Amino acid sequence: MELAAILRRAPGQWGVYAKSLHSGEVIAWQPHAVFPAASTIKVPILAELYRRVEEEGLSLDRTLRLRAEDQVGGSGVLADLTPGTRWRLRDLATLMITVSDNTATNLLIDFLGVESVNRTLRRLEIVDTFLVRRLERLPVAEGPGNRTTASDLSHLMELLAHGRLISRAVSARMVRLLLRCQGPCLIAPPVPGATYVGQPSPMRVAHKSGSLSDARHDTGIVYRSGRGAYVATILAHGAPEPTLRRVGERVGRFLAQRLL
């Protein structure tokens, strides 16, 4: 089976880019097509935050005040908590990645600045991914929103895997947090069979998922003990999210079979 056999008649638009970190084999489908970024844009935001920690001495213990006007719907928990509380940058970053908290993301966007995130993306040779604005209350504002490509996101993940995103320390910090993402994983299949308490899983995935009502994305690094590793991005848009997720899971199984 080839990727085209899965996607040629699949609903919606698809962008896929996967690469073995050992053999260099690449599997791609419209890797430069531009998609609404959804929550995958949170990875570049995290990169800019940790860059400032590494290069400018920013303390992750610095706090930001949560205001009522910052609270937006969608994923996360801060939208339901008490305004006026203060949150450490490290905790906002954790909420942004692990539970994809949109309010935590907006606080970080306002603190870091849109242009700073985009400058760091250009520095990393990420050319078609743009943070345009904070995540908004409904109805969403008209005009272009945050956008990305499968090629860009997989390039970013490859830099992470090799310890070259800003520095080895920044890369390691980001991977540790991405390993804790609780969102649905498309880029690798569930590991079959039960594991016991305390037994490490043979497969680990450092990733960031994202979704809209008509989009389902996932990007990250897949590690399989004794079998190798690969980076992968699956972007899908233009059909109901549950439908896209089912097709994306097929793509993830295919990638794992080919690259591990």
Give your account of this protein's structure.
The model has no long low-confidence stretch (mean pLDDT 92). It is built from eight helices and nine strands. Strand 7 (203-212) and strand 8 (215-224) form a beta hairpin. The chain is an alpha+beta fold. The longest helix has 19 residues, at 241-259. A five-stranded antiparallel beta sheet has the order 2-1-9-8-7, with helices on both faces. The protein has a single domain (3-191, 201-259), classed as Beta-lactamase (3-Layer(aba) Sandwich), CATH 3.40.710. 36% of the residues lie in helices and 20% in strands. Helix 2 packs antiparallel against helix 7.
CATH architecture: 3-Layer(aba) Sandwich
CATH topology: Beta-lactamase
Rg, alpha carbons: 18 Å
Number of helices: 8
When the domains are counted, the total is 1
- CATH C-level name: Alpha Beta
Number of strands: 9
Question: Taking strands numbered 1, 2, ... along the chain, how are they ordered across the largest sheet?
Answer: 2-1-9-8-7
The helix/strand class is alpha+beta
CATH superfamily: DD-peptidase/beta-lactamase superfamily
String of helices and strands: HEEEHEEHHHEHHEEEH
Mean pLDDT: 92
Gap between N and C termini, in Å? 16 Å
Helical coverage, percent range:
25-40%
Task: Sum up the overall morphology in one term.
Answer: globular
Which regions are unreliable across 5 or more consecutive residues at pLDDT < 50? Answer: none
Strand content of the residues, in percent?
15-25%
- Major beta-sheet overview: 5 strands, antiparallel
